Amino acid sequence: MLRRAGLVSKASLRNVPSNTTFRRFASTKTLKETLQDIIPAKQEQLKRLKAEHGQTVVGDVKVENIVGGMRGLKAMLWDASVLDPDEGIRFHGLTIPDCQASLPSAPGGKEMTAESMLWLLLTGQVPSEAQTRVLSRELAEKGDLPPFVRKLIDSLPKSLHPMTQLGIGVAALNHDSAFQAAYEKGMKKTEYWTHALDDCIDLVAKLPAIAARIYRNVYHPNNQLPAINKDLDLVGNYSAMLGYGGNHNLTEYLRLYIAIHGDHEGGNASAHTAHLVGSTLSDPYISYAAALYALAGPLHGLANQEVLRWQLAMQKEIGDNVTYDKIREYIWKTLKSGQVIPGYGHGVLRNPDPRFMALQQFCDAQPELNSSPIIQMVKKTSEVAPDVLKEHGKTKNPYPNVDATSGCVLYHYGLTEFKYYTVIFGVSRALGCVTQLVWARALGLPLERPKSYSIDALQKLAKKDL
Ligand code: CMX
């Protein structure tokens, strides 16, 4: 059922760009037609910005930014979402609760679909239910893998990390890249975005089939993969291919998780990698394959598997009598052994992650999750850990991030193979990355090429300032 856009809070609407339209329920335009309408105005806006404000100073670059992983450096153009350190993520001005209230869900479900989030990210508009269904069907029709990609994935050793396999499968899709083929034929710059869009839609469509095939091959080799159902949404099909189609609550959880994890502005390692590689005019498939390998690091996407490993070890050590004191003790033990507390802290956020809160609310609403020992432990941990981390005094953000709970819900529902969890994140993060790849080509953004300095050069520069 489509929840009315009127539920969107007034506070959030104030921050929505003026070209954003929420009541598009009667529109029958396709995604490409909608983008065709929007792009000229955005191109003009960027042209004016460059001409009129090209010399405006946005901020200082300090040595600490350069040697500190570029934290806080305002240096990237990314339109689809903005991350406020205190408030968290907004997608074209909409908070997660706004999106939950306004984006169309799948038939029989309540959670927003991945395709409605993709539409919002790409266009800045809330799609109608009909538009979402048309996009779902397009994705389902494009979802099957070419035979050589199936064979390639099936040939990989089961012991190869699922994320490595995902990157290989995605990169191989560039065999049929519309962007690359058109580039070879000498397409005009004004045509870049349409071919990039074709590849991006095709990539999003095929990700579930690649991801599910890896899951089947590595963990359940005797299972048959069902055919893609043209009447289901992207995540409905993904869940069915994973073997969980009959579990409505898990499918709904996956819809929510994949939608809200889709974009987290541009500076995070996976999004930034897709943007950087795409700026060389690599096609969307290989640009996103590169992003997947950034996602595969334990400080980024792999954190959700690390959280589960850590919470299970905690559960094993504490036993059945879980108290706040015992959790506190276990957190200190982890910190004293020199390890980080997975699922806590963030490069930008300075408050609890609203994505964590949305997943937690989902758990609170499901009796079976509410009473699950692992979910109860995650909740209790989130009540204790911030104070311990504050006392520890290192992390700038002692609060839970999205990964603090995401994997544990999957575990509860029986999807216990935690090395696989980052693959689900990889299916999700494509939504934001492909959005930026399309817009970067539509806006004619140039090759990304920052200037680097050596330690000696920075020291010389600093002395000159004295
Ligand atoms: N537990 C213990 N120490 C932590 C910590 C945590 N959860 N988070 C940060 N710290 C430490 C850092 O290791 C750093 O220590 P050193 O000075 O000894 O190097 C210090 O606190 C300052 O770090 P920070 O500025 O607060 O955090 P960063 O921006 O450098 O790093 C992040 C951010 C996410 C990598 C870090 O908080 C972390 O390692 N968290 C645990 C892993 C995790 O949950 N990652 C998922 C993030 C979400 C995502 O990208 O998907």
Automatic annotation (TrEMBL):
InterPro entries named in the record: Citrate_synth-like_lrg_a-sub (IPR016142), Citrate_synth-like_sm_a-sub (IPR016143), Citrate_synthase (IPR002020), Citrate_synthase_AS (IPR019810), Citrate_synthase_euk (IPR010109), Citrate_synthase_sf (IPR036969)
GO molecular function, one term: acyltransferase activity, acyl groups converted into alkyl on transfer
Entry's localization field: Mitochondrion
Domain of life: Eukaryota
GO cellular component: mitochondrial matrix
Residues of the active site: 300, 346, 403
Keywords: Mitochondrion, Transferase, Transit peptide
Primary localisation category: mitochondrion
Pfam families according to UniProt: Citrate_synt
SUPFAM superfamilies for this protein: Citrate synthase
An individual GO BP term: tricarboxylic acid cycle
Similarity comment: Belongs to the citrate synthase family.
Protein name as catalogued: Citrate synthase
Species per Swiss-Prot/TrEMBL record: Piloderma croceum (strain F 1598)
Lineage of the organism: Eukaryota, Fungi, Dikarya, Basidiomycota, Agaricomycotina
